Amino acid sequence: MLRKFILRNSDRFLSRWIVLLFDLFIVLGAYLISVVLRFNFEYTHIPEGLVLEKMPLIGGAYLIGFALSRSHVGVIRHTGISDALNIFKGTFIAIIIIGSLSTLSLYFFKENLDYLYIANSILLIHFLLSIVVLIGTRFVVKLLYNRFQSSQEVKATRVMIYGAGASGIITKNTLQHDTSREYDIVNFIDDNPSKIGKSIEGIPIIGNTKAFSKAHIEKHKIAQVIISIQSALPGARRNQIVDQCLQQNLQVKVVPPVSNWIQGELSTKQIKAVRIEDLLEREPIMLDSENVSRELRGKRVLVTGAAGSIGSEIVRQCLHYSPERVILLDQAESALYELELELKGKFKNFNDQASCVIGDVRDYRRMRRVYDVFKPDIVFHAAAYKHVPLMEDNPYEAVGVNVLGTKNIADLAVEFKAEKFVMVSTDKAVNPTNVMGATKRTAELYTQSLGKQMDCQTQFITTRFGNVLGSNGSVIPVFRKQIAKGGPITVTHRDITRFFMTIPEACNLVLEAGSMGKGGEIFVFDMGESVKIYDLAKKMVKLSGLELGKDIEIVEVGLRPGEKLYEELLTGKENTLPTHHKKIMIAQTDTLKYSQLLMSLDRLQTAHKGNDNLNLVSSLKAIVPEYISKNSIFESLDLQTSAQ
Question: What is this structure's pTM?
Answer without folding.
Answer: 0.67
